[in-house]
């Protein structure tokens, strides 16, 4: 424990003041625990648990279908909802709690808790949204004035009355709704899609290279927020524009770009993100469900038996995950494909940062993930001491041993660290306080520490 604590202290010190650009999606998550109150609000679906939800969700019956289906499968899901349904929920349903939501919001809050210095951009920055930032004074916002980007305090950037609200329906294994018993601790998200989320940021798009010159990495997410109703000229034009913005961002300096993937059930949008956005990244972050969807979209058939997305996890599945990641790395021509799974974290790399920097980032992410799961929230770096109290997954270590044998590389203290693949066991919390945002916590903490370690190496 003493060595782990010393390493954690060194990791936190490395992040102090690290400038990272984070965009595009932040919202307020309205949290509802599945139980009798929700059952009395929702109409019973025709066939609870078995029918896949429609997209977008247009009624409370559609919502009930989606929640029971997610409970039955044990795999967390997110589906967009129509504006009228979003309005109905906000008017008629009272959340049990609310918190920062959206990948950008969650990642920005974590970075400030860890002592980094994020530059954040999001649409619809309202007073209500501002209130969900834990340390708003540590966040800067890029505003363009006379062709120059000025990084202003976040509070000065509030410019909207409307707030993007996502509804998060959480349940634990054994919870029931309309006779359907949840098989795992997870959640279903009914996501709003305000028209402002069109991936056009006004004057900032043309000057984004100035942001690239001021930061040491970029965490980009939210591309899945596009909808046909909100993009007048179609996905292709919108995503081409977004692609060009990423290229302009990178032109400002030697900036590594991490794109955090997210599930969308819109086939055309998913195909556009795959073709236009993901190849622009240095790093693509996914969970096991998202990895499977990407492999399908790419038409990859590199494993005979696709790993089941339903629990329990089997140690043998890691080899299939590795092969899928490797194939996608080649197809997308990116430097790193990072998978955050329940029992381990895996990165397949090619001409990226040093393997040791990636290993250090994955091990740090495991501590962050356990802290988030156990506490429900990370408000300061001292909260990470909680994560250290959880042992690294024995099943994860077994899986990594299997992968090491498959690729012909040794392990060291349960981790695999080679020029082409890095893996570390996760620290698993059996009874998590919350599951929303853990993947974003993993991706942002690992990426930020990788960049900080690489910067230390470059400055040496």
From TrEMBL:
InterPro entries, alphabetized: ADP_PFK/GK, Ribokinase-like
Name a Pfam family for this protein.
ADP_PFK_GK
Q: Which UniProt keywords apply?
A: Cytoplasm, Glycolysis, Kinase, Magnesium, Metal-binding, Transferase
Q: Which GO terms describe its biological process?
A: glycolytic process
User: What top-level branch of life does the organism fall under?
Assistant: Archaea
Quote one Gene Ontology molecular function term: phosphotransferase activity, alcohol group as acceptor
Which PANTHER family does the protein's record reference? ADP-DEPENDENT GLUCOKINASE
How is this protein named in the record?
Archaeal ADP-dependent phosphofructokinase/glucokinase
- Organism in which the protein naturally occurs: Halovivax ruber (strain DSM 18193 / JCM 13892 / XH-70)
């Amino acid at each position: 424990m003493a060595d782990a604590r010393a390493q954690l202290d060194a990791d936190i010190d490395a992040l102090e003041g690290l400038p990272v650009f984070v965009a595009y999606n932040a919202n307020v998550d309205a949290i509802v625990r599945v139980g009798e109150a929700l059952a009395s609000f929702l109409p019973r679906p025709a066939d609870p648990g078995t029918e896949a939800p429609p997209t977008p969700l247009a009624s409370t019956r559609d919502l009930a279908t989606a929640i029971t289906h997610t409970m039955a499968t044990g795999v967390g899901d997110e589906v967009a909802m129509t504006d009228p349904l979003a309005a109905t929920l906000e008017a008629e349903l009272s959340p049990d709690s609310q918190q920062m939501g959206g990948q950008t919001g969650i990642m920005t809050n974590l970075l400030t808790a860890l002592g980094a210095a994020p530059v954040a951009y999001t649409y619809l920055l309202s007073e209500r949204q501002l209130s969900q930032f834990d340390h708003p004074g540590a966040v800067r916002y890029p505003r363009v004035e006379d062709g120059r980007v000025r990084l202003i305090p976040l509070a000065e950037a509030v410019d909207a009355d409307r707030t993007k609200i996502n509804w998060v329906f959480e349940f634990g294994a054994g919870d029931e709704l309309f006779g359907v018993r949840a098989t795992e601790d997870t959640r279903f998200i009914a996501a709003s899609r305000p028209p402002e989320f069109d991936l056009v940021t006004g004057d900032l798009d043309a000057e984004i290279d100035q942001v690239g010159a001021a930061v040491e990495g970029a965490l980009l997410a939210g591309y899945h927020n596009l909808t046909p109703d909100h993009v007048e000229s179609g996905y292709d034009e919108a995503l081409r524009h977004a692609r060009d913005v990423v290229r302009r961002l990178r032109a400002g300096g030697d900036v590594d770009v991490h794109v955090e993937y997210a599930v969308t059930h819109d086939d055309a949008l998913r195909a556009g993100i795959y073709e236009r956005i993901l190849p622009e990244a240095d790093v693509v972050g996914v969970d096991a469900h998202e990895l499977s969807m990407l492999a399908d979209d790419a038409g990859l058939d590199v494993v005979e038996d696709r790993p089941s997305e339903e629990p329990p996890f089997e140690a043998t599945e890691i080899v299939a995950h590795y092969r899928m990641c490797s194939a996608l790395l080649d197809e997308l021509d990116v430097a790193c494909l990072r998978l955050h799974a329940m029992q381990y974290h895996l990165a397949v790399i090619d001409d990226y940062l040093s393997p040791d920097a990636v290993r250090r980032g994955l091990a740090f992410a495991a501590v962050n993930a356990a802290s988030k799961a156990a506490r429900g929230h990370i408000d300061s770096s001292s909260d990470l001491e909680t994560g250290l109290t959880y042992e690294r997954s024995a099943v994860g270590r077994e899986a990594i041993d299997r992968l090491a044998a498959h690729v012909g590389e040794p392990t060291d203290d349960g981790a695999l660290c080679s020029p082409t693949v890095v893996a570390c066991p996760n620290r698993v919390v059996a009874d998590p306080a919350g599951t929303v945002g853990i993947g974003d916590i993993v991706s942002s903490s690992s990426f930020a520490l990788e960049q900080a370690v690489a910067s230390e190496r470059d400055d040496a």
